[in-house]
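Quick entry between incubations.
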Amino acid sequence: MEPAEILSNPGGVIGVGWLMIALPLLGAAVLLLGGRRTNKFGHYFGVLMVLASFVVAVLAFVQILGFAPGERRRGVSLYEFIPGVADMGLLIDPLSISFALLITGVGALIHIYSIGYMSHDLDRRRFFGYLNLFVAAMLLLVLADNYVALFVGWEGVGLASYLLIGFWQFKPTAATAAKKAFVVNRVGDFGLLIAIFIIFTSFGSVAFGEVFAKAGGASEGTLTAIGLLLLLGACGKSAQLPLQSWLLDAMEGPTPVSALIHAATMVTAGVYLVVRSGAAFFPGDGTASLVVTIVGVATLLAGAIIGTAKDDIKKALAGSTMSQIGYMMLAAGLGPVGYAFAIAHLITHGFFKANLFLGAGSVMHGMNDQVDMRKYGGLRTFMPITFYTFVIGYLAIIGFPLLSGYFTKDGIIETAMEHNAILGWLAVVGAGITGFYMSRVVFMTFFGERRWDEGVKPHESPAVMTWPLILLAIGSAGLGAFLIMGNRFMIFLGPAVGRPDELPAFHAFAPVGLATLALVAVGAGYAWLKYGRQQVPVLAPRGSFLTTFARRDLYGDALNEALFMRPGQWLTRLAVWFDNRGVDGLVNGLAATIGGSSGRLRRIQTGYVRSYALSIFVGAAILAGAWFVVGTL
Amino acid sequence: MTTHYLVLSALLFAIGGIGVLTRRNAIVVFMCVELMLNACNLAFVTFARQHGNIEGQVIAFFVMIVAAAEVVVGLAIIVTIFRTRRSASVDDASLLKH
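Done. Structure below.
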């Protein structure tokens, strides 16, 4: 089934859909421009704005459900943005509204949690201002009806992530990490920009509806080029290979930021871009789609391997994000069959990853901001709510039967298996590694004996932090079944991105699913042998070559350093040398030549009157002589 | 007849020129300049007599007037230099060099 046509503005809540973006933006403006006056109520105001945005999203969702499936794509034009190029407008369809619900819903929970988590921070108001800005930019990204407006949101997300990762800018590591995220994202943005340029020159428009309608007439080469460049952009934002290096360093930001970046915003933008452009540029066959699947599989394995070796609880979770986004990319590269699974996994991942990150934040909150899991241990009795919600998130992410991850990840693996057996089996292996590293996190944190630092008194977090955890845990548990059973989500999403005419049948325990479960069980069992039954050393053992390989992020940073940073430094040194010696040398040399020769020339001025007189005589004699030789003048 | 006057004029001019170029004492240099001017005057008057017109003699008067003015200014400078430096040598007054 092809995507439905984009119909006109139906009015109602959809007609004022811009409120979804405007409300958090207003929050950001008030909090950031209002100064200290807003310190008292700032955090409540920020939460209120996101909640209001969530309410608008829910109402718009209800309105969409009221239309017939073929009439659920609605364009809302707002104003002339760049004359002749792009108008500012919103595209409210099942895809964008799913994202809007995830961003505002999970975003609101993260906002509420932050009230408790940041309660001791002097800059809490600024923090909420940035969070609101982040949400507003992400909503603009997903709701825009053309590539240029999408790019505005895209850059807004980049800016907000920079501000939030470097929120504790007095820490040099945080400032560096923020800069790294910004610079790596620029590489991806470059790809997206070029893609938009090619789209505009090829189709004469950047509006989604017009571009997708005309894409069929373009040459294979153009479509592939646009697809690959869009993928480069997606890789930057979604931390896919080869632009993954910023994600692990981004853990320097406060934990709610990590949750927001990893669950509701930022890293999902790349998947959104691929799925949104999917009908035109990633149809499931062809070079661009193949590259998307390869990038996805490579990243899901790389992220999982990195996750196995990290002792920092947030970095272990960051590796897992990379890996899960890799699954989504893999699905997005499989064409219309995969789109729905990619987005479904994105939504359930949004819940269980926010759950896990906020749980990790809750643990850190009770452990004096300790992030080293080797100094945790035995925490389950001290923070029961955190423990139980974390375990639900954990079971969801490893794909425990009937929890969210089981449905969505299994769907991706089954689809990949039908498409290409190699990709499928690699995805199964990735699931097994997920089972290992997530079990390792749980065992090291909540089980075993206590390896705490002296003076640490773990305690459960306040209700303002535990309630978001409970709500997220409910989503982590049940959402997958709700979305996947009966292909509910695929049918809902069909009008927006297209879907196969024949809906895939869901087998509760298909052979592939059983194999996946078996590998996950093996991974979890091995983690129990290594970290549950045995004593965990407080100091990290040196480990084998493979451990070092994973600890160093698969030498990704070393590779970037050798390939880009060092040659870049050489280039700048060469440029500086050329400037000093070449350009400056020419100018300075000219000046020195003139200065030197004039210095020599002025020696003629001896100050002796008699020598001047002599030169006058000689001159007069020469003139007289010339007169005689030439004759009368 | 006029040739003798002209030869004398040339001799006086040459003596004056050599004096200007070789002598260090400012007063002597000054006198040599006067000598050269008067050699010119002699040549002017000689040519005026030879051609039987008055212009040469008129020019001679102009030269005398200029020479008188020049003496006033020149001597004033020389006296001032002598007062400050206790020297009338033209080689000593060489500050305006390089």
